[in-house]
Amino acid sequence: MSRKVLGRGINALLGEENNNLNKEELLEIDLDLIEPNSEQPRTRFTETNLEELAQSIRANGVVQPIVVRRRGLKYQLVAGERRWRASQLAGLQKIPAMVKEVADEKLLELALIENIQRQELNAIEEAKAYKKLIETVGLTQEMLAERVGKNRTVITTFLRLLKLPDDVQKLVEEEKITAGHGRALLMVDNADKQRRVAHSIIEMTLSVRETEKAVKRLARDDSETAVKKQVASKIDANVKAAETKLRRRFSTQVSIIPDGKGTGGKIGLEYYSESDLDRIFQIMMGEG
Fold first, then answer.
1. Which tens digit of pLDDT belongs to each residue from 130-146?
2. Which of 187, 200, 272, 269 is nearest to 234 (CA)?
């Protein structure tokens, strides 16, 4: 079964620009003659990922040319900013580039589609790019969905993430919480509560499902204890699982008693004779 092409794709859109002009060149261009794309939807480039790509470029070169357009005596990136940055890290002087004629109104759309095809945008970057396309190009959500090859409900879901407070959006951008967590937080109708739950997600490593349960409790009793109850239930489940493992390991009754503050507690092991104590001790010392 063939894979569905994402919308019209970047090549189709670039071809659309060049049907009449028929102007494109493949050149080796000095890196310092290339300027970044101000419409680039991707705003975060991690050092680790760039260095990994730079190592690949040192070994194999730039496999896929970047796409640029002429801007006076220089060039502006249309697609491939990560390859351009990594090439600088790799110490290259020049980079292979396809020079295209691209109109201003197509620049954001092309950059967005290229990043989506490469799955390089985080959820907030993608949402902001969709919003900008709707506002600047005048697309409806239905038109946008067709352009990028996604269902309209997917576009709507991304756009809803922009209703979160800016600091919570930043947590999604930095991948401290997921887009799924962000969607769960939208069930809370208060920005301060959204922030509190977001920080609980990070502190207690709550899953999306656990977060959904927490915000549902919050909606019911409208108090901070809702999140605490969800956190407590997670701790209880972890404690029970740990007790079971220790019980099997030591072949005796084990009790774990948290201190109630989430910072410590006690572990109790039962023994029924001196020989039983010696057996448990040997297991602890790695001799059993």
1. 998 888 878 899 998 88
2. 200
Indicate the pTM of the whole model.
Answer: 0.61
Q: What is the mean pLDDT of residues 245-249?
A: 87
Band the pLDDT of 285: cuts 50, 70, 90: confident
CATH fold for domain 9-120: 3.90.1530
Region class of 245: left (phi > 0), else alpha (psi between -120 and 50), else beta = alpha
Structure tokens at 282: 């040997």
User: How many CB atoms within 10 Å of residue 14?
Assistant: 21
Q: Which residue has the tokens 């020049």?
A: 94
Cα distances from 144 to residues 103, 140, 141, 157, 238, in angstroms, run 18, 6, 5, 13, 45
Residue 99 amino acid letter = V
Q: Choose, from 17, 39, 81, 212, the residue flagged as catalytic.
A: 81
- The pLDDT of residue 20 is 40
What pLDDT sits at residue 261? 60
Residue 2 has pLDDT above 70, yes or no: no
Question: Which amino acid is present at 75?
Answer: Y
pLDDT band, very low/low/confident/very high, at 4 (cuts 50, 70, 90) = very low
What burial letters (b/e) apply to 77-103, b meaning 16+ CB within 10 Å?
bbbbbbbbbbbbebebeebbbbbbebe
DSSP secondary structure of 219-255 = HHH-STHHHHHHHHHHHHHHHHHHHHHHHHHHTS-EE
- Which sequence spans correspond to the domains of the chain? 9-120, 164-232
Sign of CA dihedral 238, 243, 246, 247: negative
For residues 128 and 41, is the Cβ–Cβ distance under 8 A? yes
Active-site residue 81, yes or no? Answer: yes
